[in-house]
Amino acid sequence: MPEYTIGSVRVDFPFEAYDCQVEYMRKVVKALEGKSNALLESPTGTGKTLCLLCATLGWLESKKAKEAELDKADEGTSEEARLFLQGRRESRTIVYSSRTHSQLAKVIKELKATSYRPRTCILGSRQQMCIHPTISKMQGNPQNQACRSLVAKQGCKAHNMVTEWMAANKQAATQLLDIEDLVKIGHNGGGCPFYISRELQTDAELVILPYNYLVDPKIRKSMTNLDWARCVLIFDEAHNLERVCTDAASFDLTSVRLSQCMAEVQSAIEYKLQSGANSSEAIHQDVETEIESFRVTKTILSNLEKAIAGHAFPASGEGVTFPGDYIFQLLAKAEITAENYELFLEQLLVVTQALEERDEDKGTGSRRSTYSIPSLSDAIKIVQRSMGKLSEDDPPMFEGYRVHISDGRKESAKFKSAAGTNFKRMPTLSYWCFLPGIAMRELQNLGVESIIVTSGTLAPLASFSHELQLPFKESIENPHVIDPSQVWLGIVPVGPSNVRLNSSYKTRDLRDYKNDLGNAIANFSRVIPDGLLVFFPSFVVMNKCVEAWQSPLSSGGAAGSIWDHITRYKQPIIEPRESKLFAHAAEDFKAKLDDPSYSGAIFFGVCRGKASEGLDFSDKAGRGVIVTGIPFAMKTDPQVRIKKDVLDEDCRKNSRSTEGRTKLTGDQWYRQQASRAVNQALGRVIRHRHDYGAIILLDERFGNASAMADLSKWLRPHARNFQTFGSAAGALTHFFRKRRSVIQVSAEGVGGGARAGAAKEEGGFAALNVPGVGLGNVVGSDDAPRRPAAVGIDVRGLSAFASKLAGSAGKSEKSRPGFGQQLSDMLAMTKKRKLEGRSLAGTSSRVASNKAPPPQNQAKEALKGKAKVTSKANVPAMKVMHLAKNLYSKEDYKKFILTLKSYKEKRITIQEFTRTLKESMSYDQTDLLRALEHFVVTTDVAEYRKLIVEQK
C-alpha cells in the first residue's frame, strides 16, 4: 500500500491519494498531535471516511511505537518509577461516531480495506442486538430491565456463553466485526451479541458507536470502561450534530404522558395494597409507608398538571414562551425543588420497580412496551443538570433554554376522539435547549484530547463553529476529486411553458406552477438515464404535487396526466413518512432500477428525509438529482421562532464573541439550515471518484447571489443559471452525450414559452414547438390548450413532427432533405408486414436507385442476415436504416448495427434485441419500434410485438 509521511506520522493508504485527501489527513494528524479540535468539510465521494480512519490509526500506531521505545528505555529504572511512567502512557482510544448504524457498518467496511487492524468494537442497543426469543421482542426500558433481571438470575443462555466464546476467540477484537456479524455469531451459538460487544470494548483501541451515545449524558454515563482523558472523539456525518445535541438536552412533557404517569402511580398503589394485605404485620407496616409515599407522588404530579394547564393562552394558538429559569418556578408550584430533586427521582424509581415487580408476578413483563415514569425522570434530570455551569466564567446553562407551553387544543381534539374524554386543552410543557455547544463543551470538560467534527456539508464553517462553542484550531473546506466534466449543475428558473418556478408559500399551490414543475421533471426524466432523485422542501409540498400530477389534464381524461408522462420514462417510488416503511421503499427503488424491463426509476423524497440524508445513490442509482425548492423551516414553528430570537438576542448583547468571531443572527441561521439540507441532498449524486451525474435546481431563488454563496464550495464553479428551459435541457442533453449516455434527445422539443432563439444549444438540441406532440396539449385551469412541453414524441404527433423535420432541413445537423417524407412513408408501410407484391412507387425508387440489385442467390442469405439485399421487398428495411442514421448519433448508430448483427447471428435473443433497441433509440414509441420489425425473423414477430407493447 502507498505510504505517506505526515509530520512524524506514517500513514498507510489503500491507494494513491489525491492532493485533497493528503491535505485532509494532514489536518487530522495536526489536530491529534496538537491535542486540538478540527472542523473538516470534504465532499461526499472524496474518501473522507477512509482518510479519517487511516490518519487517526496511523497516528495511533505512531504513538504506540514511540511508547514502546520509551518502555524499552525504562528498563533500567526502578520498578516504582517504571509503573508510574507506564501508567502515564496507557493506550489511547479512538471513539468514532456517526449518525446511524448503517453509516457505522460502512465505517467497518472501509476499515477492512486498509492495512490497519486495531482492537475494535461496535456498540449498539439491545433492540438491535438481543437474540433472546422473548426479550428481543420488547422495547425501551422494559427490555433493558428484563435483560438485566434475566442475566442476574443466569437465566439467559446466550449471556452465559459469552465468557466461553471470548476465551475461544481471542482474536475477535481485530476481526472488525459489525453488528450484523455479532448477531450471526449469537444465532450460531456463540453468545449474546450485546454483551460480546461490551466485552470487546474493555480494551478496544477503536470504539464505533452512534453519536447520540456521546452527546446524551444518560447513555454516556453507562460507558464506564472509557477513560475520557485518553480518548479522541470523532463525529462523522456531523451535519446534524447541532440538532442532536439540543434534542439530547431537551424534553417535551405532554398532558397525556403526565396522565399516564399518574395512572402508573395509581397502579403501583393498588398492587401494594393487594400484596400488603396478605403479609405479616412488620411487612404490612413497610407497605403502608410505601403506599403513602406513592400517594404523595401522585399529588405532586396532579399539582404539576394543574400548574401547566393554568396558563392563559393567546387566541392565536401559538402557546406561551418564558425564559429558561421559569422552569424552576413552575416545578416549585408542584413542590419539586432543587432541594428535593434527588428524593423525587428516587421515589419515581421505586414506583417503576413496583410496576415491574407486578408485571413479573403476573407474567406480563414481556408484553409491557414501556412506562411513562422513566421519561419524567429523564426530564427532571435535564432540569437539574441545567442549573450548573460549564465553567466559572459562564452563566448557568438554563440561560440557553426556553420554556414553551403549547395550548394543546389540537391535541385535545385528537385525544377526545381516541378516548372519549372531554378536555378543553391538553397543553405540553417543553424545556428546549437552544445552545448545542452545551453538550459539546460537556464533552470537552471530560478532558478528551481532541474532537474532530467532519461531514460533506458543514459550510459555512464559522457559524457551525460558533454554534458548537468549541475552538477549532484546524479546519478545511476540501474540493472534490472528480473532473469538472463529471458533474453538471443547472439552475432552471422556468418550466417548459415559461411559468416561473418558485416553491415559496405564495406560489407553490398554484396549478400553473405545479403543472409546469411536473412537465419539467417529465422532460428531465427522459434526458437523465437510470436513477433520478427528486427532493421537495417537505412532505406536504411533495404530496400536493404528486396528487396534482396524478389528476387527468382534461375533464374527459383523454390527455392522460403529467404523472403518466413521468412514469413513461421512470418507474416512481415515493418516500414514506413512516420510518419503518422506508427500507421497503429503498429496496423497491433498487429493484425497479435493476429490472431490465424498466428504463429507469425515479425516487420522490424530501430534504432532511432519510433518502436525502443517508442513502448511497452511487453510479446508476443516482445519475441525476432535482431539488424543487429551498427547504426553509416553517417560521410559525415555535422552536424555529424561538431559536431565531435567541440568536438575535445574543447578537444584541454582544456584536462580537470573545474569540472575535462574528455572531450568528437568526436570519443567517435560518437560511443556513435550509442550504445545508439542500447541499446534503445534492451530495447524493456523486459518490466516488468515477461517478458522474447532473444536479438541477428547479427554483428561481437558487439564482440569487446569497443562495449561490450557500452552495457547497466544490459545487459553485459548476453552477450555470439558465434563462430558458430549452437552453437548460439542451445543455443537459449535451452533458449526458459527452458522458456516453444511451439517452438521446436530439429532436426533443421545448415549450412554446421558451424563446425562439433557444432553439439550438451546444448539443444539437432542436427546440421544436410542435402542436399535438408530447405534452403540447396540457390543459390548465381554464381548460385551454397550453404551450407544448419538452417531452418525447407522441404517436399522435408524428406526422406533424415529420413535416416539421422536412421543413427544417439545414437548421439541425440531424435534419436532411426529404427526411420527413421518408418517415411518413415508413410509418405507412409498417401497418402490415406483407411486403411482397406491394407497390412502392417513386419513393422506393429514389431510395434504391443508386444501388445495384443483388444476385438472386443472395436472397436466402439475406434472410439469415449474412448479406444485404436491395430489392423492392427490402426497401422498407432500407428506409428504417436511413431513419436510424438520421435519429442516432454516430456512436449509437454503431451500437444499433452491432445489435442487429448479433441478433441475426443468433448470439442474442429477441428479448435482448428488443431491450437494446428500446434503450438506444431516441424515441420509444410503439410505431417506431414496430418499424424495426422488418429486421425480425418470422418466428420471433409475435414475441417482438408483445415485448414492444410491454415496454411502451
UniProtKB/TrEMBL annotation:
Catalytic reaction list: ATP + H2O = ADP + phosphate + H(+)
Region of interest called Disordered, as start-end residue ranges on this chain: 837-868
GO CC terms in record: nucleus
GO MF annotations in UniProt: 4 iron, 4 sulfur cluster binding; ATP binding; DNA binding; DNA helicase activity; DNA polymerase binding; hydrolase activity, acting on acid anhydrides, in phosphorus-containing anhydrides; metal ion binding
Domain Helicase ATP-binding: 7-298
Alphabetically ordered keywords of this record: 4Fe-4S, ATP-binding, DNA damage, DNA repair, DNA-binding, Helicase, Hydrolase, Iron, Iron-sulfur, Isomerase, Metal-binding, Nucleotide-binding, Nucleus
CDD domains attached to this UniProt entry: DEAHc_FancJ, SF2_C_XPD
Tree of life domain: Eukaryota
Family (UniProt): Belongs to the helicase family. RAD3/XPD subfamily.
Protein's UniProt name: Regulator of telomere elongation helicase 1 homolog
Highest classification ranks of the organism: Eukaryota, Viridiplantae, Chlorophyta, Chloropicophyceae, Chloropicales
